Amino acid sequence: MRFESKEMEQESKSPATKGSANQNHDQWVGDKLRSARKAEKLTLKVVAEAAGLSIGQLSQIERGLSSPSMRILRLICHCLGIDGATLFQPVTPTGEESSSKFTVTSHNRRQLKFKDIRVTKFRITPQVCGEMEMYLIVIQKGGSSGEGFQAAPSERVGYVIEGELDLYMADQVMQLKAGDSFGCNTGIPYRWNNSSDKTATILWVANTHYYV
Questions:
Q1: Which end of the chain, C or N, has fewer beta carbons within 10 A?
Q2: Number of C-beta neighbours around residue 102 at 10 A
């Protein structure tokens, strides 16, 4: 009974006030995760355990008070059975989709910010693509994929448009510069970071639609 009361208390706290752009974005993501969890009738405890979080940590994410890492967000999406693409927020206030299913223009692309790891992902996949996925990943100085290695959920290739990228893939360490490309297969452990003084922009393409 004491645990149930604690979880109810976490649920009842008011969401973050809308202030900075990061707060707005975190609140956008948190609201969508909370709505998806409630639609699936899952408790904070169930989802938190699946993502390796405490109930308090998940509650903070849902209320827009904390920004999850890519790994954590992927685990939450898997537990909820939702597509991470639905969490991307419109870059422009209108939030309108492209008038053509074959294109994504610069004003109607969508973004997903990971402020704690200094990374912003822009989803630029046209509506007509049911499997292929394409992103622009902007990595600020000191930005990274997060702690530890992740297993690639699909085959993908990347191209460094500008800046530099330190890439750790399996047992190899590579330093990539503008004009360089890379790729990996499903299940290959990888991580990356930007140790340079300049922002890096990466074009990322995967052969299947995947969570976050």
A1: N
A2: 9
What would the two tokens of residue 33 be?
């995760």
- Written as six digits, the tokens of 210 are 């995947």
Most distant CA atoms of the chain, gap in Å: 59
**Which residues does 22 contact at the CB level (< 8 Å), separation at least 6?**
67, 113, 115
Q: How confident is the model over 168-196, as pLDDT tens digits?
A: 998 999 999 999 999 999 889 999 999 99
User: Are the C-beta atoms of 190 and 175 separated by less than 8 Å?
Assistant: no
pTM, 2 dp: 0.82
What pLDDT band is residue 211 in, cutting at 50, 70 and 90? low
Reading the block at residue 16, the tokens are: 């973050």
Q: Quick one: pLDDT at residue 11?
A: 52
Q: In what order do the strands lie in the sheet with 89-90?
A: 89-90, 110-114, 119-123, 133-139, 200-206, 156-162, 181-184
Neighbour tally for 169: CB within 10 Å: 17
CA-based torsion, 59, 60, 61, 62: positive or negative: positive
